Amino acid sequence: MSRHTELAGWNPLDWPLTTGVIPSLVLAVGSAALLGLAYSRSKHWWTRRLPCAVVLAAALTVLLRFVVDDWWVPFPDGLPRPTLFWIGVAVLGLCLAALRMPPLRWRGRALAALAAALVVLMASSEINRQFDQYPTLRVLLAPWIGKTDALTTGQVTPVHVPEGKTLAEVWHAPAGLPAKGTVSTTPIPGVKSGFNTMDAYVYLPPAYQADPRPLLPVLVLLTGQPGSPVDWIGTGQVPEQLDAFAAAHQGLAPIVLVVAQNGSQWGNSLCMNSKIAQAQTYLAEDVPDWAHSHLQTATGRKSLAIGGLSQGGTCSIQLAVNAPEVYGTFLDISGQEEPTLGSRQETVQKAFGGDQAAFEAVDPLHVMARKKFPDTAAAFVVGDGDGEYGPQQRKVYQAAQAAGMQAHFQTVPGGHDWNTFRAGLGVNIPWLAQQAGLIR
């Protein structure tokens, strides 16, 4: 049971926002507000203002889609149709309210404004249900109300693991070991890459607090795009999922570093060394160097895994095939078939100045077509309802198999959303621990 559900019975911050009564109530109230805005006894309203509101809302929605998908391009796949629909509903509510207000008195204007706000709330709720980005108010407010722990530093006596044994077979949790791990934030500077990015989140399992200390493996976890490290901590429930694993294994679990591979919420570094950024150097050198110099960890490529969701999943296989000496294991959740800024042509032009060969030199499908990776362990996960990323994931999985990887493919309930991303990590935590020699 997660920390969220433990408190959900009494704390409003933990009431579910994407399932149950609250989103259904918001949908009902918002729909009633929209109908109220659309209805009037005035013939002038039906013949002029209502058609104007509908046409204006449609035009603004189309314009917004153009600005986001064709001009700004904050993410390569564009706005999903359900998202665009609910944006259009929100815009329609605002347009209806704006056209109703001129002849109204101040009370009527206030009611129209309130109704428009309820329509916007409804649309936001439905978009949130689509992605399950904010399952509770606590997750939504996490950047402001979330608390982190001081990062544990310093070296203590390590636990020795004999050849042929797993850490779990020789580890005995001491009395008084904490039941939960710690979550801290820290900058991980781009010493070699010069890459500037947001602070990372560090999860240290309960066993890390012990002395002597077991040398634990490290999972570098990447965000989606757009996205930030806090997404995995709150929405992805990394602490809860790892704490649950640790509770079943005497406090043992992988250390997790959640890093922002794109530099910012809306950026896209492509996780490559290119004209955009030296992102591969950051992930393959700066991040592992920081982990081993600031934390007491296991070493070796099998003790260092990389994983991520969506664009972060694509990044994980990029690092695994372009820096196989660093990462021996990767977890690709709902990734793409290739790194992209929207199209192959645009990607090659912006990242490599039009040099197609330079792109193919680091693109995972091209790399796997010419190299073998028999010592790399790979997991591919996708939602069973994801019609866009599912075929791409299967294509990359088949290429990984052909390249000799120890690969497996899984589907979990969901689409391209956090239901899939959370489950994709959760079902593979034991596998990650096995690959790193943590458990048998």
TrEMBL record:
Keyword hit for DNA damage: no
Organism domain of life: Bacteria
InterPro entries: AB_hydrolase_fold, Esterase-like, Mycobacterial_A85_antigen
Keywords assigned: Membrane, Transmembrane, Transmembrane helix
Molecular function via GO: acyltransferase activity, transferring groups other than amino-acyl groups
TM region positions: 20-38, 50-68, 83-99, 106-124
Record's protein name: Enterochelin esterase-like enzyme
Organism whose genome encodes this protein: Kitasatospora gansuensis
Lineage: Bacteria, Bacillati, Actinomycetota, Actinomycetes, Kitasatosporales
